[in-house]
Amino acid sequence: MSIGPVEYLIVGFPGNQFNGDIVPALERLVESGTVRIVDLVFISKDADGNVDAFEYEDHPELAPFGDLADALDDLLSDEDVELAAEVLEPNSSAAFIVWEDLWAREFADAVRGSGGVVIAGERIPHQIVLDALAHAGQG
Hints:
Elements: E1 6-14, H1 22-31, E2 35-45, E3 51-54, H2 78-86, E4 92-101, H3 105-113, H4 126-135
Antiparallel strand pairs: 1-4, 2-3, 2-4
């Protein structure tokens, strides 16, 4: 089976200020063939630290995520959600997204086909990139 790199992203919303504005951008990524959503879970933590996790179909305000439903595979386990909730501040929420990088599928196939293996990889946080560019006089 051909599959591109799969990664996760936990997008936090301090003060539980999730408003759905990420939906159109996520839909464009899916429609353009850039990514395929593998799983998507929402997590909230109240001021006392109590955690609740739910799928988009559990709350009407998350209905726009239903357009992505055909790609959901329930990959995330309860343990994954618990680990994500640990980094979530009290009185905040998060979208826990797992996606396949379709844009990199051909390269991933070539790496595997040539006997190569990925040894390490990491996403560099945005602020670190901005700081490095500013230091280099490019920001």
